[in-house]
Every structure is written in structure tokens, then in C-alpha cells.
Amino acid sequence: MRNIRISIFSLLCVYLLWPYIAVFSLYVSLQTGHVEGVEDRVDWSLFKKNLRLDLDNLVEVKLKESLNKKNTQMNFDSLTLSKQVSDKIATPEGLIYLFNKPDDFVEQIRQILNNTISPEKINPPIPKKKAFEPEGPNFPDLFKRIKYAFFTEPDSFKLSFNEGDLSFTMDWRLQGLFWKLIRLKILTKQIK
């Protein structure tokens, strides 16, 4: 009976740590510029769909703001803007660029929404592979950067964190034996 309890407890601990291992694995791939590693850890069809929905909502908000100010900088072509922007962001190279230079990337999105540059101008650079240099754990910084991390369902996990002045929320889903990133949400107030 004792062995059964230990086995169940061990399996439960592994299950609870599993998404954190997936997050760390994606973190290492993003930091080292490992395109194949990023590609394997994201469900690209769901990721693109969710990103497009988020950008559609953002474009709608920006369009309403422009119309309310009687300053119609945005036109109805802006409704197709979310597809163009999501096609640039929802790639391994786009995520690596967003991870390594979030302020630059968000500024480009802001400029696109304000019609100062075209979506074609977003071209994430080809990431340069570099070695992962582990550092000692900085727990105070870690607890300051992570807002929350929890299971939303047995097969869904959510993580919200700060990177510099930006806030991100990641939704993960268990697909088969692996956790995959299905959504990355950047707080819209940061892009306005």
C-alpha cells in the first residue's frame, strides 16, 4: 500500500511540474535562438488563430478610437491588418524576436496600427544561435516577474509574466504527451 501511495504521489508531482518544464524548455529555445525547438513547442494553427483574434480586437478598438476622435487614420483595410501582422509574428523567428526585443517588436506593431509603417516592414531577423548560459536562480526577480501560473483545466495551463515594461499571458494545452503553447497575449493597453 505504501508503494502505491508513493507512486501516485510521484506521478502527481511529475504532472504538476510538467508544464513548468515545457515553459522552461521554450524559454531556453527562445533565448538560444533555436528555431526548431521553438517550432516544436507551439501549436502553430491554434497560435495563429488566437493571435489573429487578439489582433482583430485590437484593430477594432483602434478603429473606434480613431472614429471617435474624428481622426480617421485607419481605414477598412485595417481589418485585414491582423492577418498580415499575425503572419509575421506567428513564426519561430517572430517569437524569438519578440522574446529578445519585446519593446522593439511592440513598437513596430504600434506604428503599423497608427499607419506610420506598413505590415511588410515587420521582418523578424533570422536568429543567431547561441549557447545557453545557465545562471544561478534569482528567486526574488523570478517572483517579481511572474504574476501567476496555474492549471485552468487538467489539460490547460496559464502563465502570466512581465518582461521589462510589458505583460504577457501564455496559454498552454496538453496535446498527446507534450504541452504546447496555443496563445500569447500581449496586453493591448501597451500597444495603444
Structure commentary:
By secondary structure, the chain is an alpha+beta fold. It is 52% helix and 18% strand. The chain has helices at 2-32, 35-40, 44-68, 81-89, 92-100, 102-113, 139-145; strands at residues 146-153, 156-163, 166-175, 178-186. The longest helix has 31 residues, at 2-32. A four-stranded antiparallel β-sheet has the order 1-2-3-4. The chain has seven helices and four strands. The model has no long low-confidence stretch (mean pLDDT 79).
In short:
This protein has 192 residues and is α+β, with helices and mostly antiparallel strands.
Observed structural traits:
four-stranded antiparallel beta sheet, elongated
